Amino acid sequence: MSDTRIRLLQDQDWGELVTLEEHTYAASGLSEGETALRSRHRASPSTCFVLEHAGGFGGYLLALSYPLFRCPDLSLAEENEAQGSNLHLHDLVIAERARGRGLAHRMHQHLEEAGRAASYQTLSLVAVHGSQALWAALGYRARPYIGLPASYGAEAVYMAKPLEIAAPSRRSAPLPEPKQADANASARTVFRRSRPATGALPLLLGFQYATRASG
């Protein structure tokens, strides 16, 4: 698609990003506000992207390094820079006018490429609004026993997968099992989420997702 490209998030994008995030998540109580959103970007600016489509703002993706089997709290801003071998897909939203073209899937592929280039070993997210099956189709495995912050609601599910190595002759290592402390963590622990909401990542596979990782 010559009229579509993915680039790093820049200062001039915040107005449209915040508007789209609020439109996508406010009704479900999952909107986190500009301060928290900007803190996710500050934690890992090299893994936060914007989709340009047909000459305008077509969506965004926020990802940051976060300990495997833990996630950011939607009600809290990040206080530290990202570190570690797990890349957490916090949010992926496609604008309504750009949906139905497989662009969420394309952005997810872009994130995988960036993650491999930066030597991340795993990808994770928090599926909301019943989007687990959509993420499972992309290789994510549900970990329903992992505790999540209350800010995600009662039905959110933590999911993760190994970040496959590009070379066909090599195989990625299996995902490690969580320690008991991770399984019991309330997720007011260090970082934050991913989900699908109306118009968010649920766009992956031709659907419409949002990751707080709703898809």
Keywords:
215 residues; alpha+beta; seven-stranded mixed sheet; 7 strands; globular
* Number of helical segments with 4 or more residues: 5
Q: List the helices and strands in order.
A: EHHEEEHEHEEH
- Biggest sheet character: 7 strands, mixed
Integer-rounded radius of gyration? 15 Å
Shape: globular
> Helical amount among residues, as a percent range?
10-25%
Helix vs. strand class: alpha+beta
Q: Give the CA-CA distance, first to last residue.
A: 22 Å
| Beta-strand fraction estimate | 15-25%
Provide mean pLDDT, rounded. Answer: 83
Number of strands: 7
Which residues form runs of ≥5 with pLDDT under 50? 184-209
Question: Spatial order of the strands in the main sheet?
Answer: 1-2-3-4-5-7-6
